[in-house]
Specification:
The chain has eight helices and eight strands, in the order H-H-H-E-H-E-H-E-E-H-E-E-H-E-E-H. With 210 residues, the chain is an alpha/beta fold.
Length: 210
């Protein structure tokens, strides 16, 4: 998967139910999850490996200001079209080291990207540094395939986050077919990690499941 030509895949990328969110039922399922995972107040969200911008669009509709980053220029072009006229910026760049300069964010959103990076621990540390005090990492990951499985197990990810976050919440996603357009048998999950700063509001939000 890491050798996929994403520019070539861009035109058909949204045909997958959880990519394009074209089915209203699937779209509502992701909308509800994002509302739970992202900060309750409007803020700045960095969507890394944003693809065609489907999750960016949901975050924007919920009032957040979005910056999306993807390595594929074709994906970025489609994301810009999808969010035309909204408070959103899309950049071509490496998700592991996004080209955002000194900008800081209230949430970093990453779906199905971390497992494919050569040094997940380093990427997580860098992403944490892009957060404002009390900001959160929202990581959607999993393990796919039974013969030669690929991905990142939830235990490994929570272990990497332990020194970086004050609160870590795990949600299993495998048993929610609405997210994927049908039942799945592999491991899929989300981790919401609030940075271990003194911002009590952020911690209380996670504790309350916001």
């Amino acid at each position: 998967m890491t050798n996929v030509d994403w520019d070539a895949e861009a035109a058909s990328f949204d045909e997958e139910p959880d990519h394009g969110l074209r089915d209203p039922v699937v779209r509502r399922a992701w909308e509800g999850r994002l509302r739970d995972w992202l900060p309750g107040r409007a803020g700045d969200v960095l969507d890394l490996g944003c693809g065609t911008g489907s999750l960016s669009l949901l975050a924007s509709e919920q009032g957040h200001r979005v910056t999306g980053v993807d390595l594929s220029p074709a994906m970025v072009t489609l994301a810009r079209e999808k969010l035309a006229g909204r408070d959103a910026v899309f950049l071509v760049g490496d998700a592991a080291a996004p080209p955002v300069g000194e900008q800081r964010f209230d949430a970093v959103l990453v779906r199905h990207v971390l497992w494919a990076l050569p040094d997940p621990a380093r990427a997580l540390g860098h992403w944490r540094g892009l957060l404002r005090p009390g900001g959160r990492l929202v990581l959607v990951e999993g393990v796919w395939g039974s013969i030669e499985p690929v991905g990142i197990p939830v235990g490994r990810l929570t272990g990497l986050l332990a020194p970086l976050a004050g609160q870590v919440r795990v949600q299993r996603l495998s048993d929610d077919p609405l997210l994927w357009g049908g039942p799945v048998t592999d491991e899929r999950y989300a981790v919401v990690a609030v940075t271990g700063d003194s911002n009590q509001e952020g911690r209380e939000a996670v504790a309350a499941g916001q």
